[in-house]
Amino acid sequence: MDTVADLTEDELIASMLPLLPRGDRTVVPAGDDAAVVEAPDGRFCTTTDVLVEDRHFRRDWGEASDVGWRAAAQNLADVAAMGAEPTSLVVSLVLPAATSVDWVHGLCRGMAEICGPIGVGVVGGDLSGGQQLVVAVTAHGDLGGRPAVLRSGARPGDVLAHAGVLGAAAGGYALLEAGVHAGGEQALVSAFLRPAPPLAAGPRAAAAGASALMDVSDGLLRDAGRMARASAVVLDVDDLAATVPGDLERLADAATRTGQDPVRWMLTGGEDHGLLAAFPGDVRLPDGFRRIGTVREPADHRAGTVLVRGAAPDVGATGWDHFRA
Amino acid sequence: MDTVADLTEDELIASMLPLLPRGDRTVVPAGDDAAVVEAPDGRFCTTTDVLVEDRHFRRDWGEASDVGWRAAAQNLADVAAMGAEPTSLVVSLVLPAATSVDWVHGLCRGMAEICGPIGVGVVGGDLSGGQQLVVAVTAHGDLGGRPAVLRSGARPGDVLAHAGVLGAAAGGYALLEAGVHAGGEQALVSAFLRPAPPLAAGPRAAAAGASALMDVSDGLLRDAGRMARASAVVLDVDDLAATVPGDLERLADAATRTGQDPVRWMLTGGEDHGLLAAFPGDVRLPDGFRRIGTVREPADHRAGTVLVRGAAPDVGATGWDHFRA
Fold first, then answer.
1. CB contact, 8 Å: A154 with chain B?
2. Sign of the torsion formed by the C-alpha atoms of B112, B200, B146 and A116
3. pLDDT at site A324
4. Which reaction(s) does the protein catalyse, per the Swiss-Prot or TrEMBL entry (chains A, B) (predicted)?
5. Distance between CA atoms of A59 and A62, rounded to whole angstroms?
6. Which of A76, B103, B257, B283 is most buried by a 10 A CB count?
7. What is the dihedral sign for C-alpha A125, A130, A135, A141?
8. What's the whole-number mean pLDDT along residues B160-172?
9. What is the rounded (10 degree) CA torsion for B219, B220, B224, B227?
10. Closest to B43 (Cβ–Cβ): which among A33, A36, A92?
11. Band of the pLDDT at A314, cuts 50, 70, 90?
12. Cβ-based burial of A94 (10 A; exposed 0-12, middle 13-18, buried ≥19)
């Protein structure tokens, strides 16, 4: 099996390009010094996220295509979280010399599988050798004439809503780590390996008049805390076991098998890449969003607090921290 | 001295943001899920380049700010090489736990030093731990209503021209590697550590009607070969010792001290990030460009060939290859 060290950089790139989607908005595709992408709105969104082997993914946990899918998905989710439609990605790869060419091609295919059907192009990239596999993706999107929806816009009286799933990726991760996944639980493992952010819900939220919107990548509580601080409000989260029972039910078997707490997964599990939104009380929630709480004045609690109703586990200072985890 | 492991990710980011320029075209700066940047042209350029420690830079060869400068510079050069004006960068960093916070701040300052004065914003980023220091930058630019200038547009009869310097970064690299740099040769070391791409020459070339344009990052011969193949022409390069004697003269002392061939540096040295352009014969070369050859029909030589006049060293299959170097 060929490794990347058996090919020249130009040969490797030439073998990758046909696997990657051009994109509906691409004027000049990959191959020149830079790509050119349409920005009909006259503005574009941009965001970047990096995945490092043995930190964000393990090669023995899934296929190369899962890593490509996930690297794209989490960046596309950040674009959707501004209320924008994704248009394009660029990708920098650091590849140890022993990386198989097949693995790199699988990575490309995974990116194509999520990007191709929604018209997103993979329009550029760079390759380097290195000690550890790194996948750095930058995504771009178009706001379609709407204002960007920031995390700082939540106002007292707003409804707090969520689109996507809560805790599924954390459940899948726990199963992988415990080595016990099988059968029906494969769905949770997929939710971790191939998160499916509700991308279309982002522009829908913006069009419906969302006052705040953000990607939930580091866990509901931690990300809600960021929205609460940015908006200088208190977020009052309903009892999730009662509010989104379907999300909890989906986690039951995995919780039993791993001996972990499914409510904790829902509150602190990262990598689901759902969308957290605040909507004015008179707005009908757009498709995909379910009410999970209320935005309150910082009265009894200081601004930036997230209150959790129901039987919440003691989660302390929650969520994922790359340097302290 | 604090290392990145002494801070939370949020604390580290909060300490970096004030060091980074916001940018003249930035609508929503770093801090939300994605940034929003103006694209007055209705299109934007995007390109990405990754730097890996001990492969693209060594921490003991210069300051952190040099690495930040260089990571930004080589991406900005790719934007200029489309004929565009750079508007913004996003940056993904992989930082080993022992990386000092000072080093990270120095990196930010170096990016600010090249981006700030030209109105380019550093509008987003991501951090991760990892084994090896990696700096992945994506740059964006605006075409100002002009067509993008591709590397595939060179036509027989065009003048081949170059803006920037040839061989200086290779000379500086040779001095650093030999450990013999001092005094006057510091200028070459700077040319390697802090390349100064002729950014304004890119849009000038586009406005003047350049038929082809590209960044010279992997050495003149290798990159000229790419232009020749993309354009299906032969590029006939004049005797550089006679054509750009100033570039050669600047290398003389370093060549003596290292025992290397300065013409080889000019032909095959990478990382100068000058611009190679083809202009129709009736175009007056814009400021910064000097004639270095002619674009010819593929008659006696097949398309894609680069001919080198004068006393050229035997350079074989030239230039830098990340996986075979």
1. no
2. negative
3. 38
4. thiamine phosphate + ATP = thiamine diphosphate + ADP
5. 6
6. A76
7. negative
8. 97
9. 60
10. A36
11. low
12. buried
Residue B219 within a domain: yes
Asked whether the beta carbons of B60 and B89 are under 8 A apart, the reply is no
- Alpha carbons B163 and B274: distance in angstroms, whole number: 6
- Judge if A212 and A174 occupy the same domain: yes
User: Which of B90, B285, B281, B127 is closest to A90 using CA atoms?
Assistant: B90
Domain count, chain B: 2
Q: How far apart are CA B53 and CA B44, in angstroms?
A: 30
Count of positions (residues) in chain B: 325
A188 and A239 part of one domain = yes
Rounded Cα gap, residues A7 and A96, in angstroms: 13
Mark which of B142, B173, B203 sits at the end of a domain.
B142
Contact between residue A46 and residue B138 where contact means Cβ atoms under 8 Å apart? yes
- Asked if residues B86 and B79 have their Cβ atoms less than 8 Å apart, the reply is yes
The whole domain housing B170 covers 159-308
One-letter amino acid of A73: A
**Residue B180: band (very low, low, confident or very high) from pLDDT cuts 50, 70, 90:** confident
Q: Is A256 exposed, middle or buried (0-12, 13-18, 19+ CB in 10 A)?
A: exposed
Residue B137's DSSP bridge partners are B49, B91
Q: Quick check: A34 and B141 CB within 8 A?
A: yes
CA distance A277 to A215: 9
Write the CATH number for A231: 3.90.650.10
Give the number of other CB atoms < 10 A from CB of residue B314.
6
Q: Are A322 and B7 inside 8 Å of each other by CB?
A: no
Q: B25 in contact with A at a CB cutoff of 8 Å?
A: no
B133 plus B12 within the same structural domain: yes
Q: How many Å lie between the alpha carbon of B80 and the closest alpha carbon of chain A?
A: 9
Residue ending a domain, among A142, A169, A186, is A142
At A73-123, the pLDDT tens digits run 999 999 999 999 999 999 999 999 999 999 999 999 999 999 999 999 999
Residues B132 and B43: their CA atoms lie apart, in Å, by: 35
Beta strands in chain A (DSSP E): 26-28, 35-38, 43-52, 85-95, 121-129, 134-142, 159-163, 212-216, 234-237, 274-279, 289-296, 306-308
Instruction: With CB atoms and an 8 Å threshold, state whether A43 touches B52.
Output: no
Q: Is residue A322 domain-resident?
A: no
> Phi and psi dihedrals of A107, rounded to 5?
-55, -45
Supply the CATH number for residue B94's domain. 3.30.1330.10
Q: How far is A171 from chain B (nearest CA, A)?
A: 23
Q: What is the token pair recorded at B6?
A: 């002494």
Does some domain include residue B270?
yes
Share the mean pLDDT of chain A: 93
A35 touches chain B (CB under 8 A): yes
B126–chain A Cβ distance below 8 A for any pair:
yes
Q: Output the six-digit token pair for B147.
A: 């067509």
Residue A84 sits at the chain B interface (C-beta within 8 Å): yes
